[in-house]
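Following up on my earlier thread - several people asked me to post the actual chain instead of describing it. Fair enough. Here it is, all 421 residues.
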Amino acid sequence: MTPEGWLVAPVEQLFELQLGKMLNKEATRTNPTFPYLGNREVQWGRFDLSDLRRMHFSEDEQTKFSLRHGDLLVCEGGEVGRTALWRGNFECYFQKALHRLRPLNSRATSEFMLHFMRFAADSGRLANFTSQSSIAHLTRERLAQVEVLLPPLPEQRKIAAILSSVDDAIEASQTVIYQLQVVKKAMMAELLTKGLPGGHKKFKQTEIGVLPEEWEVAKLGSLADIAYGLTVNGQRRKSAKRLPYLTVANLQDEQFDLVEVKQIGVLDGDEERYAVRQGDVLLVEGNANIARLGRAAIWTGQLPLALHQNHLIRVRVGQAALTPAWVHLVLGACAVREQIESHAKTSSGLNTINSTVVAGLTVAVPSPEEQAAICNVREILQARLTTESMSVSALRAVRSALMSVLLTGEVRVRVDEGGAA
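Reply from S.P.:
Thanks for posting it. Predicted structure:
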């Protein structure tokens, strides 16, 4: 049911639609070029202008494919319907993978339409207009037919202002997260090579770089027990005794996801040999993305007793020289990452390492006290990152809830007297 005072109109009655220019490499090689936007530059509600590509546009094409303040760009493929509002103040054009929506009249504002497109995509409304012949895409003809639920202009402006304020809060938190990540990376690189500020005056050259003179350097396998988990076989499948079983899917970045934990049948000796104990570090032996190869987390004993699969390599600290937190930390250090990547083997597109490689990793070994102090710095920064990430998640939930009631008229906004937002 259409809310009182609202209209339903197809996009083609509200906006001029224009598909962008097809790539022309030959013309680009021999003629002047201009910056243009493609699918990758269009994010929800914003543009990534950090690395603009260039292409030739003739004078007629410059008129046809130019961007003005207030134009909307909508992705034809990829994440179908992803939309951003152009507010740029420089000459720029757009590629065929994008639709440009330019208001035809004063019935709809670009700001309102920006939020409506996101709501239409999130709620599945765009799915009815998306071609699924091969790769999902939104043709000009289908986009033109998308029906827009349209309140009066004052309400459009008010609704857009409310949703934009939430978007601004999300962007501010994401900016803080990015800055914290930069600070964390730089600070940890400094601490992992020079130690605590002012703590060391002499340094030495080692096989993993310059380190404080007081630090030791050792093979990880000489200070910890390295072992694979169990392999599923017919006997275990038939066993009546079953225990929780950690797989690669349970090991996310720096933590364990225990929403879904498989059960595995066990044989005599499995509990002693393959159980994970509090403080064990588990890392993944294979990943298609080499940057994520060897991602690790510390087991904190969330389950009373759990085993781990053979695609997870367990590192168990056996003496006071190393702490689990330090092992986890150095596995992500540049010097250790270089060793992991240099030993990675590729099989069917999967980068892999084995327990021998892990045991042979050369690691820096400060005193236990300095290990604890450096790890504490990291925990403080990580806690702040977690807090900001939770804030973003909460704001996104608020935005979703607001879109569902404001853009359908379920909740009507109050507009200032005189019709101003």
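The longest strand covers residues 98-103. That should answer part of your original question.
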